[in-house]
Amino acid sequence: MKNRVRELRLAHGLTQQELGRKVGVSRQTINAVENGRFDPSVHLAFRLARVFQLPIEEVFLFDVDPDPQEGTQQGP
């Protein structure tokens, strides 16, 4: 899942350590979220959005890939 965590963290003048403290996770977790290696739980996503005072959908960009099988007919 794509996100704007790094951009928003920097705009708010926070280090990864400081942001982690505010939301109750480690610096390593913040780093993993920023680099797309870890999708946060719903609770963590809401806590991050709250820190940035934004709706969750402005922090996390839900990229829905269309199913390539959807809409195709499979014959016998």
Automatic annotation (TrEMBL):
One Pfam family cited in the UniProt record for this chain: HTH_3
Keywords: DNA-binding
Stored Gene3D superfamilies: lambda repressor-like DNA-binding domains
UniProt cross-references to InterPro entries, sorted A to Z: Cro/C1-type_HTH, Lambda_DNA-bd_dom_sf
Boundaries of every HTH cro/C1-type domain copy: 5-59
Superkingdom field: Bacteria
Keyword match DNA-binding: yes
Name of this chain's protein: Helix-turn-helix transcriptional regulator
